[in-house]
Design goal:
Elements (H helix, E strand, L loop, with lengths): L10 H15 L6 H8 L3 H18 L6 E5 L4 E5 L8 H14 L4 H13 L6 H9 L11 H13 L1 E8 L5 E14 L2 E8 L8 E4 L3 E10 L10 H7 L8 E8 L4 H7 L4 E6 L2 E9 H10 L4 E5 L1 H17 L4
Helix pairs in contact: 2-3, 4-5, 4-6
Length: 327
Amino acid sequence: MMKKSGSVESSAQYFRLLELHDRFNLGEKINKKKYAELCSVSEKTVERDMKFLNEYYESVDNDEKRIIKYNRKENVHIIQNRKSIGFTSSDSFAIAKILFESRAFSEGEMKRLVKVLANNNNDNINELIRNEEFHYIEPRHGKDIIDFIWRISTSISKRHMVKVEYKRQDNKEKEYMLKPVGLVFNEFYFYLLANIDGTEQRNPTVFRVDRFLKFEETNEKFYLPYRDRFEEGEFRKRIHFMYQGDLIKVRFKFWGSSIQAVYDRIPTAKKIGEEDGKTLIEAELYGQGIIMWFLSQREYLEVISPQSLREEMKSTITNLAKLYETV
């Protein structure tokens, strides 16, 4: 039971305490004098409020207890071990930047998301991102998909079969009965990973979410053994540009400017040696998509094994060179 240093008597005091609690837990730094002027109270009152909050945190926090402390260097009070009750301004700004860079949503959905982020803060992040919002280019499909990807995710969690109509990349329309197992985002688009009913598959088939013409969840459930469950995180480590191919172990040499960028692009990559200033790397990934990234590294990457992938790289490079031969 917490000890009370004084009674909280008026609604104004209640609101002030709640606001102070929110401000601290959103990461705000409080200057006691300015806050007292804002609330039309004395600095002694603000001190009592902060003491009351510290007693409250001491009472309710079980692990790392929150505590409001004075930072002499900045002349502000800050909270340590804060518990998030929402996004801080810096959180919202960072998320907004990532959203704009993803170009995953329609213009209308993007504006709504940014507005929600801005409304969650005392500071207005709109001024900081106004230019990016003005120049935002939505994906060519122009569809609102947020509610749709939620529908897909519930089908996955319930393991319900879905009947779909799908427009393929060649513009042909097909109907499928699917067993949805995963949902991932990659390079501007969301993708459903699903097994096609009636077929034997080693890996799920990839469907781009915005290409569904119809998506109807049925009441029919499908069984998926725990050992065969689809792990989106593990899949994402090994897939590039959503081209699957076979899962293979690749070795390659890299001598470009940033080895860190290689590890970030290929989470399964590990250094196994070094030779003449070139880093030897091994990684497990899907072969088809990674070729596109390998080619983007120009003359700073050499595939060592498997031999089949090395030969495919040679063939692709030869064919590219032919395009630029003078007539």
